[in-house]
Each structure stands twice: as C-alpha cells, then as structure tokens.
Design goal:
3 helices, about 25% helix, 15 strands, alpha+beta, 4-stranded antiparallel β-sheet, 3 domains, single chain, about 270 residues
Length: about 270
C-alpha cells in the first residue's frame, strides 16, 4: 500500500515538474521570438534611416564619376491655406550599387504614405535632405538648404501672424560612421513662412535633443544633449542634458537654471554639499 502511494506521489511529482518544464520552455521560446522580432525591427529601422553619405564617401564616388543616392520627392503638403503655400519634402533613395553619373538625374516620386487630404497635419515624418517651399499663386518653388543635410521630421507651428517650420538637422558626420544621419549632432532650424527667413540654433559640441514653445510665444525651451565621452554621438540613457531659452526675436540663448543652482544640485547629488 505504501509502495503504491509512493508511486502515485512520484507520478504526480513528475507530472508537476514536467508541466513546469514545459511552461519554462514556452516562456523561453516566447522571449526568444520577441528578441528576434525586436532585432528585425531594429535592423529594418536602421536600413530605413540611411542618412546621406559623408563627405569622404562622396569624394571617393566622385573620383569614379559615380553616385550611390538619388533624389526623390514626397507629395506636396498645404501648410498655408489662404496664401496657397505648400511644402515639398525632398527625400533620397540609396541604390543597391553605385551607378555612373550621366547627365541629369531622372528622379521619380517616392511612394509616400501621406495623402494630399492630410494637408492640415502639423507634423511630417520621413528621411529628408531638403525642403522645397512652393507658392502656388506665384508659381515659384525655393529650396531651404544650400548644403547637404539630413532630417526626419518637419513640424509646422501656427501663430496669429506667422507659420514656423521646425527641423532637427544633422549637417556633419560627427559620429564618423560614414553617413550623416540622426546619430550625429543635430541643430534646430526654424523657417518663417511670412518672413521667408531660415534661422539656425545649435552648438558644435552638443546635440539638440528636444524643444518646446514657451506658452503662446515664439520663444523656445531647448534641451541640449551633452556628449560626455566625446565620441560624436549623444546617448540619452547615460549622458546628461542642459536646458536653455531661445529668444526668437534676438536669436540669443540664455540659461534657464543659473550656474549657482546647477552647482548646488550637482553637489547635493554627489553628497558633497557643505
């Protein structure tokens, strides 16, 4: 009788252990699947955000009279209805292999996901290297940038007397990985539709991380990322930020937190305050 009970107990124990083992195996399988999916998405995003080639790479291609990226245009987006002002984001496609440069580029429109009916949207996303402002009434189109840049977002902010377009723009291969993209330091550019003027806010040693308007004014609070390890790339998870106020009319930057308060806060954090 005791032997039978022991057998039953052992069978129950084995069944429980087997069930636990199956559960752990399923959890491990699910975790592995999630990791593979995340890796796929990361690789896919990296492929999509190619940036533009660095000056060094461009020079190599030019020696062979070749190109590796071609211009592509997004659908025009209406940003100023009364004056019929459109913006046309200029994108680019990276070819599988470099091609010879022969005459003018025969570029085609990209397959934009944005529809012309979304013209009242205030934000546009993509992989851009310039922007064309198209005046339907005057039938004129003008590009904003006279140099090679890369950005992925355009914000349109509406005021009673103006419309401002804002972009976080990379201009140099600060990370030194062969491309100019959003891994590099970025500056903030502001374009006034009414004034037709482009302003730049930036610092050669810091990255523009984030920004926000102060109330209803055109002044901004800007969060600068500090590249502590000086590798040309700001990483938000282990590198700090500072904040400054940008005065739109004067174009000046001033500290929000005064140096004394900043020093006091750091000393408190370190436990070294007196």
């Amino acid at each position: 009788m005791k032997i039978e009970k022991i057998k039953n107990y052992n069978q129950m124990l084995l069944a429980v252990l087997g069930t636990i083992a199956i559960i752990f195996a399923l959890v491990g399988l699910i975790a592995f699947a999630v990791m593979i999916i995340d890796e796929f998405r990361w690789n896919r995003n990296n492929e999509m955000e190619t940036g533009i080639l660095s000056e060094e790479k461009i020079e190599e291609l030019q020696k062979e009279n070749k190109r590796e990226q071609v211009i592509s245009y997004e659908l025009p987006q209406l940003v100023d209805t009364p004056n019929a002002i459109y913006i046309i984001p200029v994108s680019h496609i990276t070819l599988h292999e470099p091609e010879g440069i022969q005459g003018l580029l025969d570029a085609s429109y990209s397959n934009s996901k944005q529809d012309i009916d979304s013209r009242y949207a205030s934000q546009f996303y993509g992989v851009y290297n310039n922007l064309i402002v198209y005046d339907q009434k005057a039938e004129t189109s003008n590009k904003l940038f006279e140099k090679r840049v890369n950005f992925n977002e355009i914000k349109a902010e509406y005021f009673s007397d103006d419309i401002l377009l804002l972009f976080k723009v990379a201009e140099k291969d600060t990370y030194r990985d062969g491309v100019i993209n959003l891994q590099d330091y970025k500056s903030l550019y502001i374009y006034s539709i009414s004034e037709g003027q482009l302003k730049k806010i930036g610092n050669d040693d810091m990255d523009i991380f984030s920004y926000a308007f102060l109330g209803d004014s055109k002044d901004l609070i800007i969060q600068f990322g500090i590249d502590k390890n000086k590798n040309g790339r700001y990483k938000s998870y282990n590198e700090p930020t500072i904040i400054k106020r940008y005065h739109y009319l004067s174009g000046s930057l001033t500290d929000i937190v005064n140096p004394t308060t900043h020093t006091n806060l750091q000393m408190m954090l370190e436990g070294s305050e007196k």
